[in-house]
């Protein structure tokens, strides 16, 4: 039995693939080093991320996989569900060990799992792009915090950089404790002080929000009330298009502000 540990990065996971092939020791488990428990039986192999080795693996995949399949593999990394690393490893190993293309070979469990994971992540990406609401702070920064099921922040930054190119903004993932900040020129990933209480991490206090922002929220709620026709309400359809877990991002779903 071989447990491989890595730093949690995509490059680190690709380095695990390189090391496994070099050792001819196939992993029975792959875990991030900060949460991994030493294997009672078998060997624990700690892998240090090596960009050159990771690039060699990725270039090999680019020769064998379509662009769509490459994206699906990366989306599976962002999926973050239990054992996703082993799913990715098995997919890559099958790719390298099979002469013909494995894309569409859904009899292989790892191929089906990658496609299903990628679809879930892609769906979450589009919902985040639709449901994120910014608040204007006192220093003219437009800020939003999110808590997506999957790690989609790297996938949505391009959308918001293009859409809000004329204003400074930040989106912070409170679950994963990192965010993206756009300064009118470039977008960079950021982290906040890890010593701050978790329940407050990335959530703005009321004092940081402009009074103008509260007026905008109130106007949006009034608009929503006027366009919402009671006779045409379809709660089931509404929940299907806007699941309840996204309501915390929407102005129209917040407690009514007083004039």
Describe the overall structure.
- By secondary structure, the chain is an alpha/beta fold.
- The protein has three domains: 2-122, no CATH class; 132-209, no CATH class; 211-259, no CATH class.
- 44% of the residues lie in helices and 13% in strands.
- The chain is built from eight helices and eight strands, in the order E-H-E-E-H-H-H-H-E-E-H-E-E-E-H-H.
- It has helices at residues 10-23, 51-64, 67-79, 84-97, 109-131, 153-163, 211-227, 235-241; strands spanning 2-6, 29-32, 43-46, 135-136, 142-146, 169-173, 178-182, 187-190.
- Strand 6 (169-173) and strand 7 form a beta hairpin.
- Helix 3 packs across helix 5 (109-131) and helix 4 packs across helix 5 (109-131).
- It is globular, with a radius of gyration of 22 Å.
Features:
single chain; 259 residues; five-stranded mixed beta sheet; alpha/beta; three-stranded parallel beta sheet; 3 domains; 8 strands; 8 helices
The gist of it:
The protein is of the alpha/beta class and 259 residues long.
Spatial strand order of the main sheet: 4-5-6-7-8
Largest sheet: 5 strands, mixed
Mean pLDDT: 85
Q: Specify the structural class.
A: alpha/beta
Report the strand count. Answer: 8
Write the topology of this structure:
Layout: E1 2-6, H1 10-23, E2 29-32, E3 43-46, H2 51-64, H3 67-79, H4 84-97, H5 109-131, E4 135-136, E5 142-146, H6 153-163, E6 169-173, E7 178-182, E8 187-190, H7 211-227, H8 235-241
Parallel strand pairs: 1-2, 1-3, 5-6
Antiparallel strand pairs: 4-5, 6-7, 7-8
Helix pairs in contact: 1-2, 3-4, 3-5, 4-5, 5-6
């Amino acid at each position: 039995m071989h447990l491989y540990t890595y730093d949690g990065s995509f490059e680190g996971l690709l380095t695990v693939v390189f090391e496994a092939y070099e050792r001819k020791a196939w992993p029975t488990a792959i875990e991030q080093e900060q949460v991994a428990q030493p294997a009672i039986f078998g060997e624990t192999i700690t892998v240090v991320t090596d960009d050159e080795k990771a690039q060699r693996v990725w270039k090999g995949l680019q020769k064998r996989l379509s662009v769509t399949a490459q994206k699906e593999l990366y989306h599976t990394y962002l999926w973050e569900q239990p054992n996703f690393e082993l799913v990715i490893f098995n997919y890559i190993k099958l790719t390298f060990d099979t002469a013909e293309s494995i894309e569409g070979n859904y009899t292989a469990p790892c191929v089906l799992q990658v496609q299903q994971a990628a679809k879930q992540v892609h769906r979450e990406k589009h919902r985040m792009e639709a449901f994120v609401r910014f608040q204007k702070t006192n220093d003219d920064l437009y800020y939003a915090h999110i808590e997506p099921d999957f790690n989609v922040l790297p996938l949505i930054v391009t959308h918001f950089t293009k859409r809000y190119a004329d204003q400074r903004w930040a989106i912070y993932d409170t679950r994963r404790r990192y965010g993206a900040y756009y300064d009118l020129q470039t977008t960079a990933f950021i982290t906040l002080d890890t010593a701050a209480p978790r329940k407050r991490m990335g959530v703005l206090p009321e004092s940081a929000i402009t009074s103008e922002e509260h007026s905008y929220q109130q106007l949006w709620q009034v608009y929503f009330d006027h366009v919402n026709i009671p006779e045409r309400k379809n709660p089931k359809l509404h929940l299907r298009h806007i699941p309840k877990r996204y309501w915390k991002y929407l102005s129209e779903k917040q407690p009514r502000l007083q004039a």
